[in-house]
Design a protein that fits this description.
The protein is of the alpha/beta class and 262 residues long. 45% of the residues lie in helices and 14% in strands. α2 links the parallel β2 and β3.
Length: 262
């Protein structure tokens, strides 16, 4: 299927690895020019080289920096004159007990997982509406749909973003101008971050890593973790010309792990 977005420009955050990288790869395969961001300059530049090799016809610009800071956002936004596609993404805050989190910990989580996406939307959405095309995708978490007790920081910050998007996406000045805003809610995907978290948990419980990974897989109806490529493909479709009637939605991609009829 031709997704109809060749030649567009996308800003993809936290794109040096994991799900962000997968989204950038899928867009590049569709002929989308990308600006990718991440804090680690070396890994980001390596990813940029890989993306250019996938499709030499597109432009790939790497901007190293912390997207959760005003300086990081400014550098990314200045890398191209406009963006047709925005993929908001950031690593989730650490797990823990809310009794141990002070105000600064909460503000850091909110900055990364709620306020930064809102700032980037604010900087790009009106231009998208003026040009008559825009796709904004926020990578959140299945924990928004089914909260995980140890992930209170993530539950709170990402749920705040979800509520904000639910109203914004339906504004006439946005929805009627072929600009869509949607959230992708990933479950367990086979990324370095997931494996690291699960292996740490296994060690705490006195289990071998593979034993615990197998146990986690068995609890998912699909009996496996998702692949980054699957996630990237969904992201690219939501960004496509064919997805213009999908907006304000929370798209769960979790192998059936969340038991819900809605």
């Amino acid at each position: 299927m031709n997704l109809g977005i060749a030649g567009r420009w996308a800003l993809v955050c936290a794109a040096s690895k994991g799900l962000g990288k997968a989204c950038a790869e899928a867009l590049v395969r569709e002929g989308v020019n990308v600006v990718i961001t991440a804090r680690g300059e070396q890994t980001l530049n390596e990813t940029a080289l890989q993306l250019r090799a996938i499709n030499p016809e597109v432009t790939v610009i790497a901007v190293a920096g912390d997207i959760s800071t005003p300086e990081g956002r400014a550098a990314a936004l200045e890398a191209h004159e406009h963006f047709d596609i925005l993929v908001n993404n950031a690593g989730g805050p650490p797990p823990g007990d809310f009794r141990e989190w002070d105000r600064e910990v909460w503000l850091k989580a909110l900055d990364a997982n709620m306020l930064t996406p809102i700032e980037l939307i604010k900087a790009t959405v009106d231009g998208m509406a003026k040009r008559g095309f825009g796709r904004i995708v926020n990578i959140t978490s299945s924990a928004v749909k089914s909260p995980i007790e140890s992930l209170g920081l993530s539950n709170g910050a990402r749920s705040g973003l979800t509520g904000f998007v639910a109203g914004l996406a339906r504004q006439d000045s946005i929805a009627s101008r072929n600009v869509t805003i949607n959230n992708l809610q990933p479950g367990s995907f086979d990324t370095d971050r997931l494996r690291g978290n699960l292996l740490d948990a296994a060690q705490e419980m006195g289990l071998t890593g593979e034993e615990f990974l197998d146990e986690c897989r068995s609890e998912i109806p699909a009996k496996r973790f998702g692949t980054a490529e699957e996630f990237g493909a969904l992201c690219a479709f939501v960004c496509s010309s064919h997805a213009s009637y999908i907006t304000g939605q929370n798209l769960l991609i979790d192998g059936g792990a969340v038991r819900s009829s809605q």
